[in-house]
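Technical annex B. To support the medicinal chemistry partners, we prepared a structural model of the target in complex with S-adenosylmethionine, based solely on the information shown next.
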Amino acid sequence: MKTGLYIHIPFCKQKCNYCDFASFAGRESFLENYLQALAKEAVSHKNRSVQTLYVGGGTPSLLSERQIDFLADIVKRNFDSVINFAESTFEANPESLTEDKLRSLRQAGFNRLSMGLQSFNEQELKTLGRVHTAQQFSTAYQAARKAGFTNINVDLIAGVPGQTLESFLSSLTHLLRLQPEHLSVYGLQIEPGTPFFERGIVCDQLLMRQMLEQTHDLLTQQGYHHYEISNFAKPGYEALHNTHYWDNGSYIGLGSAAASYWQGVRSQNTADITDYIQRIERGETPVVFSEQLTGQAKEGESLMLGLRKLDGVELTPRQEHWFGREIERHLQSGLLVREGKKVKLSREGLFLANEVFCSFVAPFDEV
Ligand SMILES: C[S@@+](CC[C@H](N)C(=O)[O-])C[C@H]1O[C@@H](n2cnc3c(N)ncnc32)[C@H](O)[C@@H]1O
Ligand code: SF4
């Protein structure tokens, strides 16, 4: 059975104005103890066979070269050498990705980088609360190429407050000149608790849709494969780790807030960094939530994840049984289409995917 390994690094130099991920600024003094805790947690999953590795955050590129080596060693001692993974991604922010760190990452065996740019426009970067400039991104990107990374993803955000269609497309075309193998383009979500939410910022949904539609058109013209709602890849560079997740595959998550899905049980570690460290030091489990997915909930989850992929899903008889009526309704309204044995999001459905997905989460209508 294929399994992915995710390691969470919950530290950031500054918290961005839109971000509600489990990451914290000003907590770097816990980093050493956090890594020691990761080393202990990894032992409890020792020797499980894993094929893809994703080190995400937060900002993993805050780690020093020595800490990158330490992390790679944790992986090697408990699973396999990073170099043997089919795909091993390290998430990096432009301001902290130095040549020395890039060298350590390559030496450890990482073969994919995911870089957060968000925008090439300086004003938009400030609005987002990013701590880097566009120039810092370009320098880090070129350094990554020079260090030998031939598989790079770059994240962009569409719908930044104050952003026009022109400035968004200018970021996108600027980025395309660099020819990254993979792009993730996210429509801005205003998440409760973030500074954007507190300021009452509202997204212009129509403008954002135009941006995302033009992203699809431009990137597909340029030979990128639009394979998941927010993800585009040059053929053969589709992310293996993430695709496995959309295929409802199993994964092990290490670190604070990390989620796991193993033998039908979904679980999540405590998101609090000190609580995580203390639990591990006391020999207790870091898991604070777990549930066994069964029956309709399990099939609904699998449908919701699978439909994120643009080539859709082949419905199982159980899915037909529980969700046939809802699927028919979305086919009638044009948000889903049938193609051969598969059902997939239509072009319209791509931008209204949540309308479709809410049919597959509890509470369900009576069958
Ligand atoms: C897990 S985050 C961390 C990546 C990395 N720390 C960085 O900031 O570059 C991955 C990506 O999610 C996207 N993202 C985070 N919060 C978002 C939001 N509220 N709306 C849209 N995209 C968001 C950003 O593009 C970000 O690069
Ligand atoms: S977007 Fe990235 S850098 Fe910004 S707070 Fe979230 S995880 Fe940290």
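Notes passed to the chemistry partners:
The two ends are 32 Å apart (CA to CA).
The chain has a mean pLDDT of 96.
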